[in-house]
TrEMBL record:
Residues 36-55 are annotated as: Disordered. This is Pyridoxamine 5'-phosphate oxidase. It comes from Metallococcus carri. Its EC number is 1.4.3.5. Substrate binds at residues 6-9, 68, 125, 129, 133, 197-199. The lineage of its organism: Bacteria, Bacillati, Actinomycetota, Actinomycetes, Micrococcales. PANTHER family: PYRIDOXINE-5'-PHOSPHATE OXIDASE, PYRIDOXINE-5-PHOSPHATE OXIDASE. FMN binds at residues 78-79, 84-85, 142-143, 191, 201.
Length: 225
């Protein structure tokens, strides 16, 4: 028999009247996780967002990105638009995403339809990135095969010469193939771990994807663990 470490989840659960839209609690939980990320060692990357997509053959895949945008429109992230996830989203914009914070016994699940972020917003975010990451975005044909790491490093060296670091936001142009996605949600669930696997769950749903704070659009229910 394999040896598992069994942990009981000693979370406080979900208390208080459930708000009519998910936004306030989503925002609160992300703030709480980011604070935990600053104050304790066991929440090292509170913005880790697992994003699931489906390819043209109906095959699901999931990977982790960083939550780099969150407002009542929904969660968002930045990536290479030609990557495997980008190709999947072009075929099937339906996507799901989760933020999981085991140390604080909480998780959020989002489901909906991904939309490419507009170029203005992408540019503003790209320009805010460190120079090395901006060069890296050009150097990596994300998700394509590579012979060895040397190939990537040679490309980086060439691009570093082409666009030297002058400390300016426009040192490196924005690649056409680099962008971001916003997940317009029609289902949002908060999960709170409790003792003996008797967790708390609350789910909000709406008929079609839309803002997380739209009054009258969302219905909510509690779910069994
Ligand atoms: C903690 C963490 C954060 C990551 N953040 C991003 C990100 O913000 N954007 C991104 O494109 N890839 C990010 N990655 C890499 C992705 O997990 C993945 O390898 C990459 O996006 C290619 O995925 P795809 O081939 O399914 O498109 C991150 C990985 C980890 C583990």
């Amino acid at each position: 028999m394999e040896q598992f470490t069994r942990r009981d989840y000693a979370g406080e659960g979900i208390t208080g009247p459930v708000p009519s839209t998910p936004w306030a609690w989503v925002q609160q939980w992300v703030d709480d996780a980011r604070r935990a990320g600053r104050e304790r060692a066991d929440v090292p990357e509170p913005d880790s967002l697992s994003v699931a997509t489906v390819d043209p053959d109906g095959r699901p895949s999931v990977r982790t990105v960083l939550l780099r945008r969150l407002d009542p429109q929904g969660p968002g992230f930045f990536t290479n638009l030609h990557s495997r996830k980008g190709q999947a989203l072009r075929a099937h914009p339906q996507a799901a995403a989760t933020l999981t914070w085991p140390a604080i016994y909480r998780a959020i699940r989002f489901e909906g339809v991904a939309q490419e972020l507009d170029r203005e917003e992408v540019r503003a975010y790209f320009d805010s990135r460190p120079w090395g990451s901006r060069v890296g975005a050009w150097a990596s044909e994300q998700s394509a095969p590579i012979t060895d790491r040397g190939e990537l490093e040679a490309r980086v060296a060439e691009l570093e010469q082409r666009w030297p670091d002058r400390g300016q936001a426009d040192d490196v142009p924005l690649p056409d193939f680099w962008g971001g996605y916003l997940l317009h949600c029609d289902r949002v669930e908060l999960w709170a771990g409790r003792r003996s696997r008797l967790h708390d769950r609350v789910v909000w749903t709406r008929d079609s994807p839309g803002p997380l704070d739209e009054d009258g659009a969302w219905e909510h229910r509690l779910l069994q663990p």
